[in-house]
Amino acid sequence: QAWFVESGGGKAQPGGSQSLSCTSSRVIFSTTTMAWYRQRPGHERELIAHISDDDRATYTHSVQGRFSISKDNAGNTVYLQMNSLNSEDTATYYCNYYSDNARYLSNWGQGTLVIVSS
User: Are 49 and 38 in contact (CB under 8 A)?
Assistant: First the structure.
């Protein structure tokens, strides 16, 4: 069984929004720092946002001010609200434990693909 299940991807218009969700039946999100990562075509998987067990959110420069990470402890779900999308945001998005280097992580889910295109 997958550790993480991401959903909510699809096609979005430039300037539009998309909301992603991540759930897990094996990890309790309220007890750890969780993160969203993405892998753009031709690039390595990269950290874009993380949220601590006490709900402190941190973002990389590329998404700061446009994306918002949050979580629902009761539902054990982590969200990523993405606004002002552009073509550079086209990627497969994943959630996982926080690490400053995605290479150190395993147990990746299938991810959810977001395509930003007119």
Answer: no
